[in-house]
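User: Sequence recovery, please. Input:
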């Protein structure tokens, strides 16, 4: 990796099992996980603004990885050059970004993930999208075209009103792509919920059930979609936003009898988050037929007696390559038996691997 956040340019060889990354706060532990996530997905788990990944004072960044899957090895490369993202697999640019993101499945768990339960619906929609990418790549691929068409329709609606003839051209496009994208979201939600409920039953307190209800914001039927768009022209114009479609999806999580978002305790929210991660891992593993690489950022607070079971479960069900960061490696001594264990330290951006 070169030019990534505060990290000193380096070439690293991790082990096949557990790699524990230690170091004081602010040294670059999270950045290192982020570099792994970036080369696998061409995204970051902590920001949408990819420009912030480029080291201050540098023009570009690049992360290159040699990835073994079964008997084969491939090279993946992700770069940001003057604000533009470029990716390549074995030196070739994939046709679409999702072809790149599908290759090396990773699941990340980081402190910001607590927002999955306590945050806005958009955070849960991002989770559904990550799962949709793997369980229904074709449907998920409609997302770009959908968002483009929605933007055009909304612009026409706001600039030229409900009777603008262009709406007749845009709405069928919105409906067609929207219905496909909605179907991918629905399949993702189904798969996620199927794994989520038993996962929570395994790690949560006895007798406290979790229920999850997916509330679609649009329809998987292009005809229904189109009708709704037509009927909502005036409302969408007034609200300055499209009110029908997958961008309005919600995944309601209920612990006991109350919405987890508002009423669950901190500890319960953490458990539900871990259960969501277990479910994400299971969905991706099942759909992709390969164990995702697991990236756990700063799990120290998840290692109290109430939740360490969940982390054990994550490690066990991952069974593959795992990277864990923590300023307190002694907390992870219980995992000493987990496959081969390697310890790296990060100091002022420099990664020291034995
Ligand atoms: N683009 C960047 N260029 C240089 N330094 C950065 C950049 N982005 C973040 N940093 C710095 O990198 C340091 C390491 O951050 P982080 O990886 O979050 O540390 P840790 O996880 O070890 O606490 C922080 O001090 C942060 O200010
Ligand atoms: Mg950190």
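Assistant: Recovered sequence (354 residues):
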């Amino acid at each position: 990796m070169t030019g990534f956040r505060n990290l000193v340019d380096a070439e690293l060889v991790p082990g096949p099992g557990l790699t524990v990354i230690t170091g004081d706060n602010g040294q670059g532990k999270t950045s290192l996980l982020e570099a792994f996530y970036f080369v696998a997905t061409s995204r970051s788990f902590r920001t949408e603004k990819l420009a912030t990944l480029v080291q201050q004072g540098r023009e570009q960044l690049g992360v290159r990885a040699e990835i073994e899957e079964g008997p084969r090895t491939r090279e993946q490369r992700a770069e940001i050059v003057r604000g533009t993202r470029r990716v390549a697999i074995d030196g070739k640019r994939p046709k679409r970004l999702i072809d790149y993101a599908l290759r090396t499945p990773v699941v990340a768990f980081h402190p910001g993930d607590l927002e999955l339960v306590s945050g806005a619906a958009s955070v849960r929609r991002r989770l559904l999208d990550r799962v949709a990418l793997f369980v229904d790549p074709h449907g998920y691929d409609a997302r770009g075209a959908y968002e483009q068409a929605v933007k055009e329709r909304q612009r026409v609606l706001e600039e030229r009103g409900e009777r603008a003839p262009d709406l007749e051209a845009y709405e069928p496009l919105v409906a067609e792509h929207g219905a496909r994208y909605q179907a991918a979201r629905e399949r993702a939600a189904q798969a996620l919920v199927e794994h989520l409920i038993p996962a929570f039953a395994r790690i949560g307190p006895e007798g406290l059930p979790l229920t999850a209800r997916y509330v679609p914001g649009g329809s998987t039927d292009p005809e229904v979609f189109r009708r709704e768009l037509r009927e909502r022209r005036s409302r969408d114009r007034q609200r300055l936003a499209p009110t029908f479609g997958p961008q309005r999806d919600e995944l309601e999580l209920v612990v006991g009898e109350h919405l987890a978002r508002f009423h669950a305790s901190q500890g319960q929210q953490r458990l539900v988050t871990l259960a969501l991660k277990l479910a994400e891992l299971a969905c991706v593993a099942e759909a992709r037929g390969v164990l995702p690489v697991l990236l756990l950022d700063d799990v120290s607070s998840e290692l109290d007696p109430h939740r360490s079971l969940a982390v054990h479960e994550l490690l066990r069900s991952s069974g593959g390559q795992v990277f864990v960061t923590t300023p307190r490696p002694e907390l992870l001594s219980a995992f000493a038996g987990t496959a081969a264990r390697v310890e790296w330290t990060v100091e002022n951006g420099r990664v020291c691997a034995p």
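Residues 1-105+290-354 form a domain with the Rossmann fold fold (CATH 3.40.50.300).
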